[in-house]
Automatic annotation (TrEMBL), chain A:
TM ranges: none
EC number: 2.6.1.1
Keyword Transferase applies: yes
Name under which the protein is recorded: Aspartate aminotransferase
Subunit structure: Homodimer.
Catalytic activity line of the entry: L-aspartate + 2-oxoglutarate = oxaloacetate + L-glutamate
Aminotransferase class I/classII large domain boundaries: 35-401
Alphabetical list of InterPro entries matching this protein: Aminotransferase_I/II_large, Asp_trans, NHTrfase_class1_PyrdxlP-BS, PyrdxlP-dep_Trfase, PyrdxlP-dep_Trfase_major, PyrdxlP-dep_Trfase_small
Record lineage: Eukaryota, Viridiplantae, Streptophyta, Embryophyta, Tracheophyta
TrEMBL record, chain B:
Protein name per the record: Aspartate aminotransferase
Annotated NCBIfam families: PRK09257.1
Domain (Aminotransferase class I/classII large): residue spans on this chain: 55-420
Enzyme class: transferase
Amino acid sequence: MSIANDSVFSHIVHAPEDPILGVTVAYNKDQSPVKLNLGVGAYRTEEGKPLVLNVVRKAERLLVDDNSRVKEYLPITGLADFNKLSAKLIFGANSPAVSENRVVTVQCLSGTGSLKVGASFLGRHYHQKIIYIPLPTWGNHPKVFTIAGLSVKSYRYYNPSTRGLDFQGLLEDLGNAPNGSIVLLHACAHNPTGVDPTPHQWDQIRQLMRAKALLPFFDSAYQGFASGSLDADADAVRKFVADGGECLAAQSYAKNMGLYGERVGALSIVCKSADVAPRVESQLKLVIRPMYSSPPIHGASIVATILKNEEMYREWTVELKAMADRIIRMRQQLFYALKDKGTPGDWSHIVKQIGMFTFTGLNSKQVEFMAKEYHIYMTSDGRISMAGLSSKTVPHLTEAIHAAVSNVA
Amino acid sequence: MEQLIRSGFSGRVTKSGFLGAARSMSTAWWSHVEPAAKDPILGVTEAFLADPSPNKVNVGVGAYRDDNGKPVVLGCVREAERRIAGNLNMEYLPMGGSVKMVEETLKLAYGENSDLIKDKRIAAVQALSGTGACRLFADFQKRFSPDSQIYIPVPTWSNHHNIWRDANVPQRTFHYYHPESKGLDFASLMDDVKNAPNGSFFLLHACAHNPTGVDPTEEQWKEISYQFKVKGHYALFDMAYQGFASGDPERDAKSIRIFLEDGHLIGCAQSYAKNMGLYGQRVGCLSMVCEDEKQAVAVKSQLQQIARPMYSNPPIHGALVVSIILTDPDLKKLWLKEVKGMADRIIGMRTSLRENLENLGSPLSWDHITKQIGMFCYSGMTPEQVDRLTNEFHIYLTRNGRISMAGVTTGNVGYLANAIHEVTKTA
């Protein structure tokens, strides 16, 4: 006699599409020849093609042609060179925290993976299991932290009426947070709004946080991409490290080196003292090992090859600036096109915001309208990826926004 | 109101006190963090690397070595990489990974002409090698069968325990290894299967059990499968060594095929770390057989939900290597030849090690060395004997006495046999 072999999972329902990655799914299904994908934040050229940086191609060929290279497991913490160079990139070549051996850096799976490992570590070892995330933030943030056992709260960030920073609200909310809470900060080019604090505002944020011993957790996914300068885009992080306090930083090479699918990133934890750092590293290993044992070698090798070679590093900064500049051009083109068309509303936030995304201010109904009538795809919060625009497609987008704003409440 | 705060480590003085709160910056939030224990397997390689002895031998971690003790990149892999380098883009894969890679991977496990594949009844996603596949399953199990436990064989790969623990799934064990015979404790295994509550989840090693190298025979697999049907148990196969065990991937998948014939809705974690030498690339797959296509779509969507907050989408490079090799008939042929080459070398080393020990006049029986299969030999040595091997002979292996045969070469097999003989002759 056998027990009926029904599936033990027959009760499972279809999960909802990921709000961001689901946009590309919908876009792919669309048959229209004029369809435009402004959803996921992946850079596109003027021709609308994905881009592999020349310096990355070069690095990849060097690696392939090197017959002495093997594919052995990396250590749990990843490629050592890569880790050192990543810390140098974000904290600066002259960071005392690095030279004092107070920084632990582990290679992780891009930004998501770095956030996940950091969050899991905090969930296990940090005394105040609350994290404050800005409102709004990247759609995947809340899940990452909740699953790690942290209680997720938000702090005011975006002001819809000014389409800028709600600085007073931010200070109030962080001021009311329990001492010791973790605070997620976008290092630059806030996603989705593109609104960043000024250096002066960063300073005030920092002082407030240190006074309340709030623990900064930086998400740095766009270093170099925001202003075109790697150093300028890391300034906020470096100022926090310079005051001697502790912080976490998640780095991604997905956008600034175009390594998206290779999943290359790093988590750094800046500790107060050098004797704490190795213990922290050993505990990070316990988080990583039961997740995927060790990180993938390919992308990290490309990054290390580029960062450690002066000539290739220089080439990279040039190509990076070119990407950032193209995005800034697209902002200007879209802004002027909307102005010329007389589209109702103030669109200056398009050129004021920074980084890959523009938070248009379009509502979800307008977004739906634009997908249906104009085959233009974006996330339902009205976030568009400027990287997905080209001079050729700006007119189409302009028309669509004009129609949406004029016809849909 | 401002306060001058002396920073704990550097002695630098900073101004603080936004609201006048004079919070003394305590010497770190992490001072209570204990140093974690070294990973029992990966810690071995760390120790080996630190050893300056010219005679040192690493038979710890399961990574293949050629007869010169060097790591190997397969020819088919080098060729695949040449085709990729500088030519393909690096866009994000979908959350479920490379569709092509997954398709080819399912064929390996389920068979080229599997009806399950034709009928789209398998929910499958690319995973971060075997570890990642097991972890996805464990998290999925916790979410959708929250009251379930996992039965794990004794012994097993140590990281299995970490995976299900971190997924918060309670663990039970079932008998597997029989120390006296250094073979399978089949009777106790079957007892444990029968005594487990109906509908329990079991972790099974599809072939080349790690760490023992002891696999059930075909007949025994058939009995296990039958008993699983009676009890309505769920079988998750961890297949990390397909092709590596016998040299023939089809043969190594036999246990899975037996279960499929009996109609089980299995789960399967696959890894390309060993059989394609893609270790550090982290390429694998988790698949789950469902009742119909609709259920498979639902299950896959839920697996993606688990991956998204962990790493968003899996790494592309290794997946490209796999799909290029498996979809090119010449490269696939080359791969099969190279896998067989690796398996044959290991089988040769087993024979050699055993012969060496017997020629040294060891009082013990060593036929388990050639009876066991796959990368590892469960030598039967005690932790104390292992410690002596390491301390006196600079031979590195895990303390459970597991020897990675892949690390044995014609160059070191004599030295290894001698050392083993020395520490066991008075056993």
